[in-house]
Amino acid sequence: MQFDDLPAFVRPDDLAKLYRTSKMTILRWAKDGRLPPYQGPANSPRKGWEREYLRRFLDEKAKSDVRALARQNKRAGQALGDSAEMIGQDVGVSLLSRRHRRVAQK
Prior knowledge:
A two-stranded antiparallel sheet has the order 1-2. Helix 1 crosses helix 2. About 70% of the residues lie in helices and about 5% in strands. The longest helix has about 55 residues, at about 50-105. The chain is mostly helical. The protein has one domain. It is built from three helices and two strands, in the order βααβα.
């Protein structure tokens, strides 16, 4: 099953089949914000999402997750670079002090 195979009005059961998980997991994802809050037609017990609304939400969520991951990796890279510079400085200081020791001993 693919996303385009879903009906125009997607119920939690339909989405559970697509993601091969339980209906309760889908409802929990909606509660946690991984999926939009589910809704239904007025005065109807049916709950779910319009397929195109769900597609737009998931596309935007994926884009924002990618941007957040890129920012996180950039910060991690900067931290790693800063650590490498500090280590390099420490090595330089220790080499410098060895040279000074040698000069002082002669």
